[in-house]
Amino acid sequence: MTIKANLLRNLVLPIGDFVFGQEMITRLKFLENAQYWPLEKIQAKQAEDLRNLIQIAYAEVPFYQSMMDKAEVRPEEINDPADLSKLPIVTKDMLREGYPKLTTRYTGQKTYEASTSGSTGKNFYVMEDAMTAGWYRASFMLSLEWAGWQIGEPHLQTGMTLDRSLDRRIKDWFLGCHYKSAYQLDDEHLDEILITIRKHNLRHLWGYPGSLYYLAKFADTLGWDHPLSSVVSWGDSLYPHYRQLIESVFQTKVFDTYGCAEGFQIAAQCEYGNYHLHALDTVVEILDAYEKPVKPGKIGNIVVTRLHPGPMPLIRYVVGDLGVPSKQRGCPCGRGLPMMEAIKGRDADVITTPSGNRLIVHFFTGILEHFPEIDSFQVVQTEPDSILLRIQPKGEITDSILDKIKTSLADKGTSDLQVNFQFVESIPMPPSGKHRFVINQTHSNEDSHV
Fold first, then answer.
1. Which pLDDT value is given to residue 450?
2. Across 326-405, where does the E strand assignment appear?
3. CA distances, 125 to each of 93, 263, 299, 398, 424 (Å)
4. Which of 253, 257, 263, 299 is nearest to 275 (CA)?
5. Hey, which of 130, 136, 178, 206 would disulfide with 156, CB 3.0 to 4.6 Å?
6. What is the DSSP annotation of 106-154?
7. Reported pTM
8. What average pLDDT score do residues 244-267 get?
C-alpha cells in the first residue's frame, strides 16, 4: 500500500466519515475481510441483517406494515432469505404512490432526495442519508479494488454529474479523480479525454460501457499505445464487442459492475471474470413470471432486498433488469460471496448527432430524471437530424416545461438535432417484451442493437 493510500484509509477518509456521518471506510474494512468468509458465514450474517431490516420496516414504515398485514405475515416469520417469498413483490409504482410519507422513516440523520431512472426511462425518487451512502460507496470501492485500484490512485471517470458539488470536488481531489463528461462523445471531446490520460499517466479508466467503447474506438484510430491497468464499467450493458475492443485497445481487462442508483450495489466482476453478488449488502432473487426462482443458467427478473434499512427500506424491490443465476459454485479468487452468471437487462441504442456526438441512454436519463412532470420517456431517431421524444406525463407539461427540456438537452449535446415531442398514455412494448427507451432506426447507427 502506498503512503498516500495509507493516509487516506487511516486518517483523511475516516475524518471525512466522522464529519459527514457515513462510516464508509469502517464499512469497507469490514467488507474487505468478510468477502473471504465461507459462504455459510456470509449467509448467516445476511439472515441476521435481514431479520433486523424486517423488524425495522414493519415497526417504522407504514407501507411495509400495511403490506405485511395484508399478506398476513408477521415480522418474526421472516428469518432468512428463503422466507422472503412470503412477501409480495414491490414495484416502483407501488412505492411512488405512498412516497414519501408512507415509505420513509426517521434515521436521526439529515436526509436528501435522489432521483433516478437509470436506463429504464421511468423517473423514480428515493430518500437517502449519509449512512446509506456510506454503505453503497464502500461496496463500490470494494469492486474497484477487485479491479486492482487502490484508494488515491489517479484515474479518469466519465460521468453525468458535471456540476461537481463541494463534497464531490473534495472527493475527486483526494481520490485522484479526473472527471470528464459522458454527455459529449464527439471526436473532439474524446481526444481531450485521451490527452488527459496520457498527460497524467493515468492507468485506471471508469465509466458507462457506451462511453468507454467510443473512447476505445477513437483511440484505436489514433494507434493508441498507452496500456491501462484496468477499466471498470457500470450503468448499462457491456456488449461482447464493447468488451473486446476496449480490452484490445487499452490492453487490459474490463471489470463490469452492477448497481442501482436507488442506493445499493448488486454485483461486480473479480479478476477471474465472475460476477460476485454483494450478499452482505443485498439479498438478490432472480425470479420467473410466476415469482418463482429460476434455475441456474436461466434468465429471470432481478428482485433486490437492501439489507441496510436507511430512510427508505427497499424489500423485494423489482429493479427492472434481467439476470442469470450462476451454475458455478466457488471461485478461484477465494471469495465466499455467491455468484451470478450475467446481467441481461440494460440494452439501449445510441443516438448519433449530425456533428458526430454519440448520445447513450444515460445522456437522456441524466437530464430527464430532473423533470418530475415526466413519468416515462422513449427517444426514437428515424432521421439523422431529428429525434422524437415520447413522453408519458406524470403531471401537466406546459410549453414552458417543453422549452426547458429542449434547452437542457441542447446545452448538453442535441443542439444540432431537432427535438419533437409526442405525449403517450404508455411507452410501447416491443415484441421482445423488454422496454427500450432509446431507439435508433437510421442506417447511420453502426452500433445500434435494433
1. 29
2. 339-343, 351-352, 358-359, 374-383, 386-393
3. 11, 11, 28, 22, 22
4. 257
5. 178
6. --SS-EEEEEE-TTTTB-EEEEEEHHHHHHHHHHHHHHHHHTT--TT--
7. 0.84
8. 96
